Amino acid sequence: AYKETPFYQLSHVKPYNLDIPITPAAVTYPMTVDHVAAIVKCAADNNLKVQARCGGHSYANYGIGGQDQAIVVDLKNFQQFSMDKSTWQATIGGGTLLGDVTKRLHDNGGRAMAHGTCPQVGIGGHATIGGLGPTSRMWGSALDHVQEVQVVLANSTVVRASERENSDVFWALKGAGASFGIITEFKVRTQAEPGESVLYSYSIQAGNAVAKASAFKKWQALISDPNLSRKFASQFILSELGVIITGTYFGPKAEYDSLNISSRLPAKDESVIILKDWLGVVSHWAEDVALQIGGGISSNFYSKSLAYTKNDLIPESAIDQLFNYVDKTDKGTLVWFVIWDLEGGATEDVASDATAYGHRDSLFYSQSYAVNLVGRVTPNIRDFLNGFNKIIQDSLPGHNLGAYAGYVDPALTEPGMAYWGNNYPRLQRIKASVDPKDIFHNPQSVKP
Asked: Does the pLDDT value for residue 1 go beyond 60?
């Protein structure tokens, strides 16, 4: 009965997506890696599934199992941190949130690593799914920084995994971590913080479908330029408020000016901020309008994502259709947004089969997201997002756009291929070897 109380749900279960109610068998708070191992053994002995939770931002509540009666291993006590200043390799506890990762790296030598913009996301899930962010075009994804981990496996053993030791497990953890173990410690390479950075935005607060479509066409042409600097990060954000094209250039203003970005994007409400303080740059990202809507607050929402390669640019006729659809369709809510996020660059330098992460060739992603502030997600809201994504997919027949595992979509019919592509068969083989009873399980995890 205690597990059904509001106190238990709010204080311990803490579902991120309130539209997917889940009651775990237990929520645990281990203090040591041996505690984690004992919890995994207890769960396995009693035929219960296990999922780790760090930040708890799973869009389908997979951090609490994704279904009832899982054992949740909350890693909030794993906050260890150290920096080897001879190699600039950092050791980071598996329960550390990205906001703390940024601060601790900064305080220990002015270092940084690639990761996303939401400070409440945890490194445990982020760096084992992909971990994309504004600096990924320069430095790769968060998982590309990972050089070694300490991980608890399904047989409750504690091992080290790297390219030299338990390499198959390491390969699988770098893209599909929730299916293979619980990482209690990361060792990551770091980079020197950028110096001066330019934060830019171009806003169209009002305007008809034609103006918005024209803005997207210009943005897509810009980000598909093969010679675009890897120091350039960009997002196209569409919401009820209008259009914002925003991002960061990791270099001095003179370099940014030489790119002539203002001549390649809509000349509407241009804003440019120059910051030399790295913590200030990262804090500015967290103030993004869409992030404020969908960031650290639990809500009833529905989300979908698509991954686009350089061969998947949206045709101009489909762009017109898409923005007409947005203007004319009843969305069922005023709280919705779509983010197209530029990637590519250094993330593409790694071979597609070098890690389990399945979308090395992705030039950009889109994430569509809608919230119901007054109750469960309605069919109207789902139909709006499904229709939006269908226009894009129908405009690219024969293209397999895939989906980003960091934006969990429980409606996917073939999640294995959508999330991990051609890497999925190898993941299944490794799963059968190290977790044949599927202890580390959620509704879309890798199956043996």
From this structure: no
Strand partners, 365: 307, 341
Per-residue pLDDT at 287 exceeds 80: no
- To the nearest 10°, report the CA torsion of 355, 157, 186, 53: 90
If you count DSSP H runs as helices and E runs as strands, how many of each does the chain have, helices first? Answer: 16, 17
Name the β-bridge partners of 342.
364
Average pLDDT over residues 348-370: 95
Integer angstrom CA distances of residue 353 from 131, 172, 350, 407, 411:
17, 11, 8, 21, 26
pLDDT digits (tens, 9 = 90+) for 381-412: 999 999 999 999 999 999 989 999 999 999 99
* 110 conformational bin, left if phi > 0, alpha if psi -120 to 50, beta if neither: left
**Strand pairing report for 191-192 and 270-275:** unpaired
Q: How far apart are the first and last CA of the chain?
A: 34
Q: Is 0.85 surpassed by the pTM of this model?
A: yes
CB 365 within 8 A of CB 137: no
pLDDT band, very low/low/confident/very high, at 2 (cuts 50, 70, 90): low
